Amino acid sequence: MVTAIFPQPRGMRSQPEGPGFLARADLQVLMDLLREDQRHLIGPTISDATIIYDEITSVEDLPIGWGDDQAPGRYRLRKRADERLFGHVVGPTAWKKWTFPALVPLTTATRDGHKVGFAPETTVPPKLAFLGVRACDLAALASQDRVLMGGSFVDPDYILRRASVLVVAVQCTTSSSTCFCTSMGTGPEVTSGFDLALTEVEDGVLVDAGSAAGRAIVERLPLRPASSAEQYGAAATVAQVRARIGDPVPMAGLHDRLLAQLDHPRWAQVAERCITCGNCTLACPTCFCTTLTQRTDLAGRTATTDRTWDSCFSPGFAKVAGGSFRSRPRDRYRQWLTHKFATWVDQFGHYGCTGCGRCITWCPVGIDVRDELNAIAPAVPLNPETVLVDPVAATPNEFVGARVIHTKQETADTTTLTLTGADPAFSKGSTGQFAMVALPGFPPLPISISRFLPDGIELTIRGAGPATTAMCALQVNDQVGLRGPLGNNWPLDRAVGRDLVIVTGGIGLAPLRPVLHAIVAGRRRFGDVKLFYGARTPADLLYRDELERWAARDGIEVALTVDRAGPEWTGRVGVVTHLFDQADWDGSNTIAFVCGPERMMQATATTLAGRGVPASRIHVTLERHMECGIGLCGHCQMGKYFVCRDGPVFSIAQLGDTFGREGI
Amino acid sequence: MSTVAVAARPRVGVVKFASCDGCQLTLLDLEDQLLDVVEHFEIVDFPEATSARSAGPYDVLFVEGSVSEPAHLERIVDLRRRSRYLVTIGACATAGGIQALRNWGDHDAFRDAVYAHPEFIHSLARSTPIAEHVTVDAELRGCPIDPGQLMELLTALITGRRPQLPDEAVCMECKRRGVVCVMVSKGLPCLGQVTQTGCGAICPRFGRGCYGCFGPREQANAAGLTRHLQMAGDRPREEIGRLFAGYTAWSEPFRSMVTELGGAGRGPADARPGSTTTTADDPAATGGTP
Q: Domains of chain A, with CATH numbers?
């Protein structure tokens, strides 16, 4: 009874006593109370290798000790190590199955000679108790309440069914990879919209009442006050769920961001994957679109009109005599996504999505709405040029000191130095920038910053000449002189929402390593990320533990190749472009970052262009002799650019036909 | 289909081409409603039910089966001329049927392998749906057709309204009935997403994947489903081709999938029990005679 018949004065609704503890052995008492007065109890139970909601009568009907593994397009039951009753997340069919059924007879029409009559069908809804409603699904019920009975017209069937439901919510003590209630602001904490709320703990549940009907039940339960340890433990468990889910879809400004992207190329791309089957809409707990169908008898005397669930993905949904208003699948996907995350807000004042994740799990081809949102309407504007920090020791005659606190020999000739004590400006540098690094007696050298730390930087240096060899030989507590950070950066902002291809070889991974760190920190902001990396031999691969982690854990496709393999190498052999020039992929939404010898970059750019990556989105970092780092000494001129000042990162479109031309 | 009501007691014929008669029998299987149907329709030609014959004209002619013999080519044109509404029933009539799998193979080799006296056999190299030859007013899909859809068509005819034969996916029916998706929960390949509903999702209801007997729905993204099955399920191409190579294989876009992926088999060697499955690009599979 969410709509309280006798609303209580403010302040009376809270429970000063706090939640009660109901022992696991007494849970049947609660279930029996819920089933009083011919009330049917609907709760989680196992059927068809799935935890669904169906009529249940006893604790034994609950999925004792079962959890669920949910991922895009995939659902599997999983045996838990414990005997939890609610150690799973949402089931395939939403509670709207009972409050807003798939088929509702609306009208019976009759014809008798010239007379016609229309009689509304009347609903006598069964009394129901929902057991195990999650926070996201409470939000879904509230959303349908708003849509179907919150305006000037109400749905007569819905209002009757809804008033016949007693809602027993359950706090989430576990989450699925498909959950994003935290982003949608609907969960995981149960806060309102329930008659009773349970939190499952060891050996029982904590019980809260949220309505007069709930309090009436609580008074009849064999409860003892929950201890503060139990209350704290329950809250901590739900807090862990929140932390585990994180914030997969940053919502700030999403409404405007999404509606500004009606022409985004991703709509067409997702439509190639989307089967327009409509599963997402019917699995969705808030989708409310319906269609009317007629049933007639052979005598033509009576005709019944039924209302059934419909989907904006079906071709017939937007059809008129002249055809469909949304004839292309991309139009239909856009209609659905923009309704859920933008125009629903205009119509009803809240998002049409609760973050339950059903549309992700039950999409047969595993389209993840979170990925589509982050790609189509990324959380940061697409082209805000990152403002580069002012360098310190800008002029060639001054340096600031930094101290080596760690060294790591990456390969036989390459070492990574971790430096601290440098000016804070270095920590605020951007991916792809470099520092001029000096040791007394040696010429200062431009070295890419291979990692930005809160209080320092890392430099990965290959000992190719006397100065770099001296730098590789530095020990902990040795000091170096630094100027910087200098140069421009990889345009990572422009990569948001796109697929990103990174192609590099040998030491060329060093200036791209901060890019990968930034991707890992905000993985969902980017589409597919591929790293193609080559080295002379397996022993020359840099950052091997990170390469493994990026591939195994961070959702980055890492492909490696070497020029010469040893007996232990089972991977590819050959030049790095061979890693991706045979693969079948479409680069029209791709941005590429390339670092390596100029001939390799040229070959890579040609291959990328052949995949449809425009020249404006192929970025290379150039190597030239640099001494001053600020465009004054003239060494690094390349056509109209000074590489140190205007680069080192350029797009192929910027470079035009100077790129790859011999002797420029 | 037109929404103009037909005569007070429309004359109905039921005829067959290359088919198993199962769809016609759906009419007889209406049982409880059969007397009502006969009261409102005059059945003038229906060999499965009566020995009475009529040369037409028919207000409604139900046509079962595919065009499979040279004689069929003239007969269907003739029947069309004598019918006000021509309604094709079943996968054979609407899609060419399972016998259309021969369209990918060597017709003469099949005939010679199966029949002791192939010279007496007059069949076309291809089995084709009725709509490839004459205009069709309405289709009842399926193998066999659904009795509910048949009644819907009959009652719509009487009322003069458009029959409600949905063009949406089988998935919609699964979801409305609360059937758990077999592809997501069991990893079974299922054609429900690309198949027109009307069957009541009968296969997923019994825990198996849809095999597409109602044929492709409007704008069926068979290529998208194929890509997913290849990538997510790691299934070989021909196995996916065989999914589409069923009762409605000759309907686009299933037809393109079978052509592209294989799965229809190509010669009589494929049809013999115990023979190994051959891929479409296996030259040994083409045109072999026993």
A: 20-100+115-245 (no CATH), 254-376 (no CATH), 400-486 (2.40.30.10), 492-621 (3.40.50.80)
